[in-house]
Each structure stands twice: as structure tokens, then as C-alpha cells.
């Protein structure tokens, strides 16, 4: 699976690699810290997480993390992942989360990445995409809506945080999701 490349001609999604660590660390800003982990990433922690992502690909685990890259230069601009084992999801549902580095925001790249990963998720057997967003993360909610997801509900998660759930039915056999 390490050779997987999904592209729409503008963005390419491919599995994260250890040589992406520097780009990720350089791209982190206060918004990523706020919405992702609550504290700045460390090199050791980022390398450990990327190794975990690589292992998940190698073992066909429930996490599929992909770098979002520009099609032209293959520059890492963020990443997107699927999680098939999130507590609270129903059978067939897959969680989708994403981050985009500041220099690349506002260009529609994450929406493109979401549409691409939805096709991949459908091929892997998922029937519904779920994007869970902090109610104050307006940019992430806008990505969900632009990608065809509709608001479903707000839940109090196990960690005590509230999330708005956006859902999209995925097509059979990896066709394009309806918007």
C-alpha cells in the first residue's frame, strides 16, 4: 500500500513517510495545535506517530493516514486520515480528519482531498463518511459542507469535548459521492 497515490490532478494523496516529518513540523501553527493536539508537536512524537501510520499501512490496520501533496511539486501541504475503528461509529462508518498547513489554506485543497479519500474509503468497504468537528472550528466545518457532508448532530465525546457530526453517504464501489 505504500505506493498508493490518489489524485485529481491538483492534489495527490499518498501515505505519510518519515521524510515528511520536517515538512509537518515546519507547517504547524497555533490553529493546528489548538484543533489537533493542544500542544506543539515534538520531533520524537511526530516521528513516532508517522511510524505508527506506516505500520498501519503495512498491516492493513484501521488507520490510513495520507499526506496531502500538490500534484505539481509533490509538496506536503497537510494530511488526511481515515479511521475505521473510532468508538461510537456504526458499522460501515469511517471517521475522516484532516489538517492543512497555513500557507496552503483557502485554496480548496482539503475539500479535494476529502473527496478523494471518500472514494478510497468506499473501495475499502465504508458506506458513510463522518467528519467530527469542534463547534468553534468554523473552517473545518466549512470544508465538510463544501465536500458534500451534511450536519447530523452534536455529541459530547468521551474526552468531554463537544463535536458536531457531519455525514456523507459513500457510493458503492468507489464512485463519486453525491453532493
Automatic annotation (TrEMBL):
**What are the alphabetically sorted keywords of the record?**
Acyltransferase, Transferase
**Pfam families linked:** Acetyltransf_3
E.C. number:
2.3.-.-
What species does this protein belong to? Streptomyces sanglieri
**Which residues belong to any copy of the N-acetyltransferase domain?**
11-173
Q: What is the name of the protein in this document? A: GNAT family N-acetyltransferase
Q: Which SUPFAM superfamilies match?
A: Acyl-CoA N-acyltransferases (Nat) (SSF55729)
Entry GO MF terms = acyltransferase activity
Amino acid at each position: 500500500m505504500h505506493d498508493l497515490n490518489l489524485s485529481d490532478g491538483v492534489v495527490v494523496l499518498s501515505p505519510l513517510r518519515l521524510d515528511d516529518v520536517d515538512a509537518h513540523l515546519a507547517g504547524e501553527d497555533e490553529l493546528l495545535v489548538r484543533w489537533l493536539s493542544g500542544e506543539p508537536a515534538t520531533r520524537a512524537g511526530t516521528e513516532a506517530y508517522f511510524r505508527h501510520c506506516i505500520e498501519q499501512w503495512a498491516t492493513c490496520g484501521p488507520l490510513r493516514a495520507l499526506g496531502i501533496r500538490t500534484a505539481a511539486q509533490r509538496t506536503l501541504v497537510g494530511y488526511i486520515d481515515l479511521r475505521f475503528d473510532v468508538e461510537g461509529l456504526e458499522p460501515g462508518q469511517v471517521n475522516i480528519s484532516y489538517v492543512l498547513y497555513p500557507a496552503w489554506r483557502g485554496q480548496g485543497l482539503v475539500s479535494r482531498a476529502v473527496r478523494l479519500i471518500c472514494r478510497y474509503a468506499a473501495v475499502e468497504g465504508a458506506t458513510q463518511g463522518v467528519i467530527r468537528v469542534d463547534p468553534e472550528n468554523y473552517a473545518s466545518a466549512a470544508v465538510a459542507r463544501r465536500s458534500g457532508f451534511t450536519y447530523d448532530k452534536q455529541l459530547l465525546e468521551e474526552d468531554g469535548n463537544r463535536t458536531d457530526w457531519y455525514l456523507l453517504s459513500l457510493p458503492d464501489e468507489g464512485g463519486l459521492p453525491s453532493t
